[in-house]
Amino acid sequence: MSRLPADAALPSDPAARENLEKILASPSTLRAHEDLAWLACDELRAVRLQLELQRAETILSEAGITGTIVVFGGTRVVERPQAEQRLAEAEARAAASPADEAARRTVERARRVLAKARYYDEARELGRIASSICQRDGHYDFVVVTGGGPGVMEAANRGAFDVGATSLGFNIDLPHEQVPNPYITPGLCIHFHYFALRKMHFMLRAKALVAFPGGFGTMDELFETLTLIQTGKMKPVPVVLVGRQFWEKAIDLEFLVEEGTISSDDLHIVSYAETAAEAWEAIARFHGIA
């Protein structure tokens, strides 16, 4: 009876009243935009895609975001105190089970994650540098945008937060990463359902992409960008890989050239940096920023 107007007269006939209750309880009496179950059906996928594309566009346009720096990187690349704690916990478990080979391997991986903690600091510094230089007098250019999660993404948003600047988070439902990091500008954490639309919005305003060490998600987003630039589907932007030793081992681009599967010219799509300052220098040089 909740959808019945408060001043509506109820039928005196009990059978008619009962039938009216059934009528009002039926989803067919909902207006189209209120019928969430119907909007979620397979036949409405195209509508949902359009809505997700347009909703993000509206939010970003109203916020005056003219350009972004896309920062990708691993969720497991955390700041040093957290990495040290994880290593200590792994070592304690290994010490309690000396014969456990898996526990020893976990210790080795935890040590490697600790060694990458510096990338958290560099991503944070990049957020500070870009936001300090390019967000002035109400002008929102080169705004840091991340996937909204922890690790490197948190660090980049945190750098913008440190200097009181705007930053974006394009969050998405994942089994282990559903809560946005706390450093995104309120109102500019946009929640996506479709990876395809999320990646599209990463690129629509991108003026640079900076990739720190990461896993499948980072690789997916990086190769999406490389493919779009290689095929001319988007204008070239700086693609900076931070941590040359990691990237040259994770992705052997020279091998692809030698195998004839990419051109030697494709190597120029990417550049390498070790620090936030070097990454920003590559971006500034490309765009002619003093």
Blueprint (SSEs and pairs):
Layout (H helix, E strand, L loop, with lengths): L13 H12 L10 H4 L5 H18 L5 E5 L7 H17 L4 H15 L1 H18 E2 L2 E2 L2 E4 L5 H11 L4 E6 L16 E4 L2 H10 L1 E6 L4 H15 L8 E4 L1 H7 L2 H6 L11 E4 L2 H12 L3
Parallel strand pairs: 1-4, 1-7, 4-5, 5-6, 7-8, 8-9
Antiparallel strand pairs: 2-3
How would you describe the overall organization of this protein?
The chain is α/β, with parallel strands linked by helices and 290 residues long. The protein is built from twelve helices and nine strands. The chain has helices spanning 14-25, 36-39, 45-62, 80-96, 101-115, 117-134, 152-162, 195-204, 216-230, 244-250, 253-258, 276-287; strands spanning 68-72, 135-136, 139-140, 143-146, 167-172, 189-192, 206-211, 239-242, 270-273. The chain starts with 13 loop residues before the first helix and ends with a helix. 33% of the residues are buried. The model has no long low-confidence stretch (mean pLDDT 94).
Counting helices, strands and paired strands, the structural category is alpha/beta
Rg, Å, rounded: 25 Å
| Overall 3D form | globular
> pLDDT below 50 for ≥5 consecutive residues: which ranges?
none
Average pLDDT rating: 94
- Report the major sheet: 7 strands, parallel
Q: What sequence of helices (H) and strands (E) makes up the elements?
A: HHHEHHHEEEHEEHEHEHHEH
Strand portion, in percent? 5-15%
Our measurement of the CA-to-CA distance between the termini, rounded to an integer number of angstroms, reads 66 Å
Helix content: 40-55%
Strands, count: 9
| Strand order, sheet with most strands | 6-5-4-1-7-8-9
